Every structure is written in C-alpha cells, then in structure tokens.
C-alpha cells in the first residue's frame, strides 16, 4: 500500500461487557476508497464510528488500542475531539439536511469556523456543491429549503456540507442504501471523483457497490477483521474461506 | 437446501460433463475411422455434432444469465468464466473429430503409412488425453492436469516426427502424395485436439488456483504443479 492515512493497532471496543470489536489492526491508505463489508452486527459501522470518535456519545463504551490518524492517536487525552471531527467528515445512511436553505446548509460549518466574508462563503458553497456534483441541479434555488430536494439530491447536499469544512477523511455509512439506482450511481461516481482529494471509508451492505467503488475492501465478521486487501483480489481470489463464503453468498 | 444459484451452477457443470463425454466419443469414432475402415455412413456422428453445437449454445446462454442476474465473484466467477471457455474448446474438439472422419476416407493406402509410422499409438494417446481432460474437469485433480500437459508434449513431438517422416516418404514415392497429404492434415487435427485438451486443463487449473497459466511454456507449467 502507498501512503497510509490511518493506522489502527489492536483496537478493541466494548459496549459494557460485550466486546464488539476484537483487536482490529489495519492500515487505511490515503486518497483511496476503503470499503468495509460484513453481515449485520459484524462491527463495521461501530468501527467506522471509531474513526471520528462518534462512539464517545454512547454510554458504557470502552475503547482500547490505538487509532492513529496521520500519526496522532485520536483517543489520546490531549486531543481535541472537535478538531478531529473537523478533519473527518461523515455521511449517513439517511440524508439529514438541516431544516434550512440549501445555501445555509453548506455555509453553516464554515460560518461556525469563523468565516464571515460573504464572497468567501459564496465561493465555498459553490465549490462544495460542484464537488458533490449537484451544483447544476440546484444553483438557481439556493434559498429554497433543503428539505424540498429529492432523496438523492439531499444525500449529495450532505456530502457537499461535509466537503465545505475541508475534511481530509470522509466516512460514509451506507450512503446510497436508501436511494434509487440513478442516484446511487451518482453517489458512486462522486466517491470515485472525491478520492483524488480525500481518503474515503465506506460501509456498505451492497457487495457490488463495494466492488465498484472501492480500492481496498475489509471484511468484518463477529467483531473481527477477517481479511483486508485490494478489492480486485478480495472479489476474485479472497484468501480466507470466510470471506469467500460471504461474498459468494454461502454464509452460515 | 441448495440455493437457486447453486442449482444453476450444478446444471452448468452437468451440461459441461455431458458435452465433454459427447466430444470424447467423437474422438473415439474419429480414431476408429482413421485406424480401421469407417463402419457407418457417419449419420450418428453428424447427429452428435449437432447435439454438441446445441449444448455449446446452451452453456453460453446459462453463463450469460448467471452473469446478468447473479453477479458471480471469486470461485463462482472463475467457474463460469472457465465454463464458457471450456465449452468452446470442446466444441472445437468435436469439429476436428468430424474433420478427421471425413479426411480418413480420402487416405488411400492409409494402412501402410499408418503402420509404417506408428500412427495408431499416437491416435490412442490423443484418445487418452481427451478422457483425462473430462476426468480433470470432474475431479479437479491437479495430478491429472499435470499428466495432460506431459501427454500433450509427447503427442506434439510424435506428430512432428510422423509428419517429417511422411513428407520424406512422399518425396521418395510420389504415389503416396495424396494419402500422405491427407494424413498430415489428420495428424495436425489430432495435435490440435490435444492442444484444446491442454487449454481445458489450463482453465480447470485457473478454476482451482485462480492463476492464469495459458501461454506459459511447458517447463514453467510443469514446475508449477
């Protein structure tokens, strides 16, 4: 692998007594798309949420091991969680735009970060919407409510909102599972374009989506990382029998 | 309970087995036609050829539908990719066998040449290689694959020698030119059959090991096994 953005060393996560992630060690390459696959409850979403410390919000969660983002352990006491989340954006399964105008949805983050200059904000809004491949569709109605957009548009708006605060890493949790095939292919195409500038980690139940969009694939099962490798290798010649059984649909 | 998908895969495997046996019989018939006088008019052989063609098309249709509907990956993907190629190779083996049967009729004095240059042994080797090829698809035995590669090499060398000898014979005795030429063509067909069998063995190897070994030299292939 080339440049490594995230080093994960022996990371375990407990929900109370239950060990949901078991000594995960992996390296996530920069400017690549890494897909996390595995059956429901295997820990892939839990793992994704570890990367921007979203699990901090859940009571009784204990995490051991290291999660080094660009060499810095994000679970170190001295690390400011707000700074981490600024660098690591997240897109969820269900699009969740703010009940505000399209413009305000994008400008919200930059404004909180202290950008007040209207011209600068305009520019961020346009660039972010362009990068998220939605600008042409909505440029004439930036003042309309974001809630009036279609599901696929809302999801791309959320991606634009993530991009507006210039993250390095984008986490996506089933970003297209609630979308029709056309919107899905737009999101997938977008993921492909965004990896030039961002490191993307995507959780998906859709095996074909993992195969189409990612450079690397990691297969999780029962809280363990069973196998990680180049997507092409995982889908043509997986090394572990469990991976083979899962991707060929012969599980259990 | 086997899934719908697994039933489709099993069906595909059975058809390949079937088409393989048909082609194997065609090769047997062609060797018979070459070594002894043709027994029948060849109607049966023609019928079998049509059957092979139909099954070849059927295999393509099944593979197409699996690709479109099931998006196979890993070992399933390799099996279906191989299935398409293998059926193509088998169909060609069938065609070559037919062509040998036709050519055999034109070889006057053929027995002299056949006995003189030990063509019977060579033809039987080709028969064996087709049998082993069907076997290796079913058993996925890497030993059998290795045997096929070795046999193919022997057949190739024997064919070269026999053709060389026949040409010399034709040079010294012009009466043998017509049957000699036909026999050379038949030998080339036998060699091709063995070559198609080797290709099939290579696809079976790919199915098992996910490694493409076609176009590799014999020595590399052998050391790999």
Automatic annotation (TrEMBL), chain A:
Membrane topology type: Peripheral membrane protein
ABC transporter domain: residues covered: 6-247
Gene3D superfamilies listed in its UniProt record: P-loop containing nucleotide triphosphate hydrolases (3.40.50.300)
Pfam families: ABC_tran
Transport is among the record's keywords: yes
Stated role: Part of the ABC transporter complex PstSACB involved in phosphate import. Responsible for energy coupling to the transport system.
The protein's name: Phosphate transport system ATP-binding protein
Organism: Flavobacterium xinjiangense
UniProtKB/TrEMBL annotation, chain B:
Lineage summary: Bacteria, Pseudomonadati, Bacteroidota, Flavobacteriia, Flavobacteriales
Keywords: Cytoplasm, Phosphate transport, Transport
The family this protein is said to belong to: Belongs to the PhoU family.
Protein function: Plays a role in the regulation of phosphate uptake.
Organism: Flavobacterium xinjiangense
Subcellular location: Cytoplasm
Gene Ontology biological-process entries: intracellular phosphate ion homeostasis; negative regulation of phosphate metabolic process; phosphate ion transport
Main location: cytoplasm
Keyword Cytoplasm among UniProt keywords: yes
InterPro entries: PhoU, PhoU-like_sf, PhoU_dom
PANTHER family in the cross-refs: PHOSPHATE-SPECIFIC TRANSPORT SYSTEM ACCESSORY PROTEIN PHOU
Record protein name field: Phosphate-specific transport system accessory protein PhoU
Domain PhoU: residue ranges: 16-102, 120-204
Subunit (UniProt): Homodimer.
Transmembrane stretches, start-end: none
UniProt keyword Transport, yes or no: yes
One GO location term (cellular component): cytoplasm
